[in-house]
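QA checklist item 7 of 12: single-chain prediction sanity check.
[x] sequence parsed
[x] length recorded as 348
[x] structure emitted
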Amino acid sequence: MNKPLIEKYDKQNYLKVLLSFHEQLLSAENNISNYYSQLTGLKSSTTDVRNIVICGMGGSAIAGDFVKQIFAGSLSIPIIVNRDYSLSSYVNEQTLVILSSYSGNTEETISAFHDAATRNAKMITISTGGDIEVLSKRNTVPHILIPKGFQPRQAIGFSLVTLFRIMEHLFQDFHDAHLISRNIGWIKEKQKLWTSPVDNELWNLAEQLCAHPVIIYSSEKMFPAALRFKGQICENAKLLAFANTIPEMNHNEIVGWDGIQSNAPFSVLLIRDADDHSQIQKRFDILKNILSKKTALYEIYSEGSDSFSKFMSLIYWGDWLSYFMAIVRKTDPTPVDIITHFKNELSK
């Protein structure tokens, strides 16, 4: 880690967010515990729920993607993540719609709120305030207030822990009381490694990845981590990144690689999990052998004993790596000026 470079380019102190991420997890855990009593009435009616729709954009939606995969093996009803202004026609009074917007003013999520209310869906909202909070109070919808002070993508700890605990509280009898403390311990250990001024493998990887667009491949199960990392590279490092899944890319995208002989002007990152299906593991190995002859290729394995922890390990790893990539590229990781410009144009 190069402290002079960080001091020069990290003008809004993104580093502080990374170093205090364990505090964000603990704060999120304490915060959601204050709202369980408000969800009691809803919990009694979850036997009627036939599907769950999580609405949001950006960091709020990606938390939904993670939760969808975390509960895929234990929940008998489908979870759908909605990144749009309207809801599908199956949404009705037997649907639980969870709407998450960090600012509380995301126009797509506000529109989805009105759609869900019209359909008499069961609803929960999450925000730092804004129109979502106002609408929730007006419509007597349970609202989870989370702290302000972050860029939406920086608040992934609040978004994910809040959403995970809501789902756990409503649909499971088991509450893993030590989940957050286990992850905090892991995070603190990684901080020691990733803030080292010498032999810092993550900083070295950032130096190798930062020059060209990055293509990320993962299994379908781990795709939320790939999608999160893609977004973090784009927003933090101001560098294009793309993501796809295995086996899907083996049926189409892989042919596009056939025309590349060597020295492709982008890098490939494989996100892997030791518990991926055996055929997925085999596909990764074959793909690795093919692509390593054509471009720079790297791989990372998730860590942890449960799905939540595995995803958290990849979130934190990717956040640090994209931060280092920004610094190596001599850019401030915090501002997203083009998004601000885009929203201003929309408002005209």
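[x] summary fact logged: The two ends are 43 Å apart (CA to CA).
[ ] second reviewer sign-off
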